Amino acid sequence: QQQVKQSPQSLIVQKGGISIINCAYENTAFDYFPWYQQFPGKGPALLIAIRPDVSEKKEGRFTISFNKSAKQFSLHIMDSQPGDSATYFCAASMLWMDSSYKLIFGSGTRLLVRP
Amino acid sequence: DTGVSQDPRHKITKRGQNVTFRCDPISEHNRLYWYRQTLGQGPEFLTYFQNEAQLEKSRLLSDRFSAERPKGSFSTLEIQRTEQGDSAMYLCASSLSVGGETQYFGPGTRLLVL
Fold first, then answer.
1. Closest residue of A to B99, CA-based?
2. Which of chain A's residues have a Cβ under 8 Å away from the Cβ of B41?
3. Contact B45/B59 with Cβ under 8 angstroms?
4. Chain A residues with CB-CB distance to B56 below 8 A
5. Per-residue pLDDT tens for B17-42?
6. B113 near B84, Cβ under 8 Å?
7. For B9-45, b where at least 16 C-beta lie within 10 A, e where not — what string?
8. CB nearest A46 (choices: B41, B104, B110)
9. Which of B57, B92, B109, B114 could form a disulfide with B23 if both were Cys (CB 3.0 to 4.6 A apart)?
């Protein structure tokens, strides 16, 4: 019940196209859903995050769509660029009993944007 | 504005040796997390500190692992008697007390146990 399932495992998109990555969760107590971008040899960097009280959040070329009833959320990268080539992780969190906000991560999507 | 820093960035050790990693969180961040990331997988939670108190440890953290955060500032993660299965990227993240769900990650320490 604590898992976050992410798909696809890898994605190839042409420059200028739209990249879409999907995640699903089971625990309805989760109330914070961030997306992280990770380049090889680097730590994850926070891209954008959403709470379940909104269905969409947009920051620049990045948009999160959230479907609370389906327990799914997705990342859309508009006008994808070669510099967006990285691994993307969705995650979920809540205020746990230990007062932490530990993140439960998906397994990652390796995105390649072709020039 | 400095982010989360970790040292060393890379560590190669022989099986059975002890290793220690350091994490310096963003100043004024009183929440600190350690995660472990194996190749091709997402990070997995290891342990959590609020100030100097270690409040949560994952079952992934065997008794060979110990973490400290003296005075609520930097943190260290020690692995004793390393095993080949310990080879991974060890990530540190920090966050504020308010808005604590937003975690900022360091660059990680990549450990290779031969």
1. A101
2. 107-108
3. no
4. 96, 98, 100, 102
5. 999 999 999 998 999 999 999 988 99
6. yes
7. eebebeeeeebebebbbbeebbbbbbbbbeeeebbbb
8. B104
9. B92
* pLDDT band, very low/low/confident/very high, at A89 (cuts 50, 70, 90): very high
Q: How many helices (H) and strands (E) does chain A have?
A: 0, 11
pLDDT digits (tens, 9 = 90+) for A19-69: 999 999 999 999 999 999 999 989 999 999 999 999 999 999 999 999 999
Both tokens of residue A28?
């309805």
CB-CB contact of B56 with A102 (8 Å): yes
Both structure tokens of B113: 């146990």
Residues making up chain A, counted from first to last: 115
Task: Inspect the interface and report whether the beta carbons of A99 and B33 lie closer than 8 Å.
Answer: no
Q: What's residue B72's pLDDT?
A: 85
From chain B, pick out residues whose CB is under 8 angstroms from the CB of A89: 42-43
Please answer yes or no on whether B105 and A34 come within 8 Å at the CB atom. Answer: no
Interface test with A, best of B101, B109, B111 (most A CBs within 10 A): B101
Residues 31-90 of B with CB under 8 A from A: 31, 33, 35, 40-45, 48, 50, 55-56
Strand A33-38 and strand B5-7: the pairing is unpaired
**Predicted local distance difference test score (pLDDT) of residue B97:** 77
